[in-house]
Here is the input.
Amino acid sequence: MKTKLSLMGVAGKIMAVLVVSLAVTEGINFLAAPAFRITDDEATLAVVAAAMAVAGFALNLAAAFGMLAARRKGELATNGLYAIFLNPMYTVQLLLTVPGLLLLLNSWLALSSVIPAFMAFKLFAREEEQHLKEQFGKQYLDYKDTVLFKFL
Here is the structure.
């Protein structure tokens, strides 16, 4: 059976898990403030958070443009960040962009919302992998074998 995915892949499902997790952690954080505070130096934290989020957004944009260019040609994206990471857009979002934005909340508990999002990614990414196997066959399997970082 052919799997059908939108251009966004499974990102919506991962985002839903992140939003629910963040709502729960922020509810707890509100009730237990300041128990989960990361630092009292909010200015430095804001600079670090902004740097992470901006770098993540820029890298994610680069990966998205690479994927879109390949998609327009009916090809598998294998260049740029796709030559380095198996899932560069999710990798950048889960390791830089989302944690950077969550740091702005100055809460270890809120930052932990990345963990359920990562678990959701591991679960839902199978749908994208199946779609790519069906669409590109051996080319996708060869790509998976040669890409540098497969951890996400």
